[in-house]
Amino acid sequence: MLEFGQGMAGSIPGMILADNGADVVKVERPGGGWDRAADGRRMWDRGKRSIVLDLSDGADRVWAAELAAHADVVISSCRPGVLDAVGLGAGTLRGRHPGLVHCSISGFGPAEGYEDVPAYDAIVAAACGHMVGLDVLSGAVPGQDRAAPIFTAVPLASFAASQLALHGILAALVVRARSGRGDAVHTSLVQGLGAILMRQEMARGAVAPATSATPAMNAGIEMCFMTARCADGRYLQMCARQDQHFRNWLAATGLAHRLSDSRYAQAPLGIERVEDVGALAGELRAAMATRTSGEWMQVFVDADVGADPFLTPDEYLRHPQMVENERVVTIEDPEVGPTRQVGALALFGLSPSTIGRGAPLLDQHRDELAHDPRWSGPAVASEHPVSASVSPNYPLAGLVVIEVAYFLAGPLAATLLGELGARVIKVEPPGGDPGRRTGLQSAKLLHGKESIVIDLKTAEGLALLEELVDGADVFLHSFRPGVAERLGVGAEALLARNPQLIYAYAASYGSKGPQARRAAFHSTPNALVGSGILQAGEGNPPVDDSYPDPGSALGVATAILLALHGRTVTGRGQALETTMLTTAGYVMAPYTTRPETAGAWRLPDTRQLGLSALARLYPCAEGWVYVGGASERDWQAIATTVGHREWIADPRFADQRARRRHDALLQAAVAEALAAEAAATWEQRARPLRAPLVAASPVAKDRWMEDHKLLIEAEHPLFGEYWRPPVRVDFSDARPRLDPASAPGEHTRAILAELGRDRLETDRLVRRGVVQAWEPVH
Questions:
Q1: 402 backbone dihedrals φ, ψ, rounded to 5°
Q2: What is the dihedral angle through the alpha carbons of 89, 95, 101, 107, rounded to the nearest 10 degrees?
């Protein structure tokens, strides 16, 4: 693989492929990229080889083209058009090498009018509305000014884009194994933000009341994920989303009697009035303040109540669930020495990941590559001859996924595979996936799926599931450890029935360790990985944030696609396991990559506006801007944009170290300058200079995407008219599969007919409660 990338989005795909056996060559510019000094780079460039090539030089361009001729995959996060201008674009390279998979990652992708805006993570997040409309479940400190935008410290758009790029690359490689033909794949940070739209309803037109979450239901969800202060002043992140876990919490705090009150009989999400939710939440907060965090954790572990302490990244890397599940590695970095970082994204039973070398020194492998026959000399003919057959309409056409996963991370992973063309059969419990209780919010988790409701507690139901698995390529579940085995659908049993099966366990804590069997939702990794403290800002209580759910889904889909690609080589299936804790560590890679020499991490300010003068939101005469520079060129462009070129020669701001020492002074100076004009005016001045300064969107990202015509019209009898997220990955030779969401049991009868059950037999199964079938109301 040949990589023209920098930063998280452009580098993590190569890292994951290197971890799983690929020979990855990173082409770097003279002097290195803007991320060369970042701690996170020591993780996302591990296992690669480095060569410096100046693409403005003819000889270096020839060498780059020679390297590309030997590659299976080329990935680029350069500005659109840069590689095309030097003869290294997808069209040119694929014309010479039809089996090549060429992947490009841009900042704004399908959103028009942003070609001259630098594509840093926070710049894209601010411009697209990712920093507005945040609440206590998405990183906002209670009581913070929510009319102002809030700096989002977790680089989620970059991580999401990196995983979408991998989805495109791996799906294209699966197709190439059949056809010999590669593809040109594209995704973007904006499409990454589209992949993590979760709690937005995105209604379009009139919506039936049954499809919307009520204010009281949303307040009930916030109560379930309370950030609770304990007697020792420390906070616990609660995780009581399911009814039983919430009732266990009430019992543990001495409040079980509240369930006999008619107002709370349907707690937590069935309470009718917001004020009643508030009253119960107040009682829970008062009860939590009566014991220390350690005392409560002992109680909650025994009582099956989801709760976790808020940790720092160093504490996270020592957490027993990370260590015992083999997800932490220490790598000797050639520049800073031993460096602890998050290990393999997934544990594979047949083809385990191998993590060895640290990130390379700049141009470390120039001589080695010049004499490596795999990367030099005449390109050998592809071992994947191009077939005359037509490429499939969908990249994963013909593959079948059986999903037995509830709520968010597992179901969203299957949705992503469905959009790539896989047939996804969602097996739901009687009453449907509990995640459906959020109404229209859940539609995004159901697109492209066929739903069958089966009672797996019955012998007949389990037999039906086994029949489905016999014809499947992937089995995905999210049961707690031991449950699948008790049901008879553990990895060993299903792989014995279907040796080509990819058996994917989407775990939370992992299958080993003292907390393996505990309940977990998004709030668990948010607390344990350090992002709850980071996002809150200096001096504030830690906060909840929902990103680990969609982030984990992206990681699950990546792991499944890695295994599917591996199957094209070995012909064998295998079991794999991902954990939410691990994937959250990948999202937080800039903070969870810890050299022994690393100092204290830097937190945003108390108002949640930014990390420094050049990574910060600023109020203007009208609106807000985000300023986010990473290089000396960026700094000079910012100073020029705000009309203070004299700052460039000022010794207090002469280099990055000086600016860090005088950050408060620089912050005040930039704030004063920006207050004089409207945000839109500043952005207009910044664009010709490509300065990393952008007007922060005043509307949230779902509305921004609607305004930019990125959303897709959808309609279903159960959900009404609504918007579905943008296409996540674009292919030149294939298209996405955009089938609608499904109702619980909507396809029960059709799927049973495929299994050979006639109408009479299906009716009998329905009467006996083994299956449920949904019929639309006319």
A1: -100, 115
A2: 20
Instruction: State if pTM tops 0.90.
Output: yes
What is the DSSP secondary structure assignment for residue 76, as one 8-state letter?
E
φ/ψ bin of 440: left (φ > 0), alpha (ψ from -120 to 50), beta (otherwise): alpha
Residue 549 among the catalytic residues: yes
Other beta carbons within 10 angstroms of residue 205's beta carbon come to 9
CA distance 359 to 334: 8
182/172 Cα distance (integer angstroms): 6
> Residues near 257 by Cβ (< 8 Å), separated by ≥ 6?
none
Who's near 59: CB < 8 A, 6+ residues apart? none
Considering the candidates 545, 549, 702, 730, report the single residue annotated as catalytic.
549
Instruction: Find the DSSP H helices in 371-490.
Output: 409-419, 459-470, 483-487
Place of tokens 């929510």: 146
pLDDT digits (tens, 9 = 90+) for 458-512: 999 999 999 999 999 999 999 999 999 999 999 999 999 999 999 999 999 999 9
Q: How many CB atoms lie within 10 A of CB 551?
A: 28
Going along the chain from its start, the domains and CATH numbers come out as 1-106 (3.40.50.10540), 210-306 (3.30.1540.10), 395-588+737-772 (3.40.50.10540), 610-700 (3.30.1540.10)
Amino acid at 421: G
φ/ψ of residue 422, rounded to 5? -70, 150
In whole angstroms, give the CA distance from residue 360 to residue 752: 55
Q: What share of residues in the chain are helix, strand, coil (percent, to 5)? A: 40, 15, 45
502's tokens: 């990819």
Banded model confidence at residue 597, pLDDT cuts 50, 70, 90: confident
Q: Convert the pLDDT of each residue in 738-775 to its tens digit.
A: 999 999 999 999 999 999 999 999 999 999 999 999 98
What is the distance between the terminal CA atoms of the chain, rounded to a whole angstrom? 54
Longest dimension (CA), the chain: 85
- 313-371, pLDDT tens digit by residue? 999 999 999 999 999 999 999 999 999 999 999 999 999 999 989 999 999 999 999 99
Q: Where are the beta strands (DSSP E) in 636-709?
A: 693-695
Identify the CA nearest to 479 among candidates 448, 520, 515, 418. 520
d(CA 497, CA 509): 28
- Two tokens, residue 399: 């593959």
Residue 351 neighbours by CB under 8 Å, 6+ apart: 20, 21, 563, 566, 570, 574
As given in the structure block, the two tokens for residue 658 are: 């000086």
Using CA atoms of 642, 646, 650, 656 in order, give the dihedral in degrees to the nearest 10: 40
Question: pLDDT tens digits for 614-638?
Answer: 999 999 999 999 999 889 999 999 9
Predicted local distance difference test score (pLDDT) of residue 383: 55
